[in-house]
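WARN retry 2 of 3 for item q-0093 after timeout on previous attempt; input resubmitted unchanged.
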Amino acid sequence: MSTAIAVLDFESSGQQVGHHPHAGATALTPMFGETSGRTGRADVIGSSGATLGMVGESSAMQRVLDRVARVAPTGASVLVTGETGTGKELVARAIHAGSPRAKRPFVRVNCGALAEGVVASELFGHERGSFTGALERRKGRFELANGGTIFLDEVGELPPALQVALLRVLQEGEFERVGGTETLRTDVRVVAATNRNLEEAASEAKFRSDLFFRLNVFPIRVPALRERAEDIPILAEYWMSRHSRTIGKTIRGIEESAMAALCAYPWPGNIRELQNVVERAVILARGNLLGLGDFELPNLGYAVPPKPALPSDERQEIERALAASRGRVYGVEGAAETLDVPPTTLEARIRRLGIDKHAFRRRAPRP
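OK item q-0093 returned
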């Protein structure tokens, strides 16, 4: 069974479906092609969007990728759950990119960031003169997203009156602008996200249960980074490479002790925190390797696992293990498991010895 690798990226740039350069198999990396049509509003992405990624070989990420691939071609509503910083918006973008609506607008709305008095206007628009300051007619996000996808982040923060209006759009595809009498129709796919337990909120009458069930047609839970710690080395090296290029530094890798410490840290801020920490380390680095002192995290040296020893003829042993695993370091029957060492330790020693692990992917296993 092949292992998909994708990259969870919190920055905006064009992408297309393709291969991750470090992947041993096809990577499910949704990418958006460039288009000349932009709406002029920062929250309306059209078909140019975020560099996505769900970099990882962990089984937890494979489950997310599988669910994204299955639901994307459909028109089903999706509820994405997970802690802050896990990349819920990027899952929504991946769903949009893999859908028949990919060339239509992707409109994002942070429901938690909108004042209660303006939520209706933002979502559904308003007519001129409908309230003080409404100097002209304005289209809302649902109107702008027509034919595409609307991403409702922090949907659990919507006030009760707007929950009713949202339910109507989901069921009937209809709404009116604030201050208007004309019923408008929209063809839009809804992907919502929350870090709250909406099922519990619905049972406590803090969120409409009918809206919850309508949003929760296809749930996708994005795991916290601590739940897929085996992906930390891949993510850290991805961000190291990306930020070093952006900043203009030549960084060759992350020292073994630093990587072990990164893997031991619990990452309460998830991938967003890891990205920021690696970027800061690249800025602080004085050499071409990121060392433990370059990473500014509380208790970074805490619980760093001891370094296990490899046989004296380690190059030969490593190459033999890589040949048997076809160049795969992580996971079941990976080279690290064969050698009974942490994958981060093996990766560091492969770099130190100058072994090209990718070359073993083109070779048959030795008998």
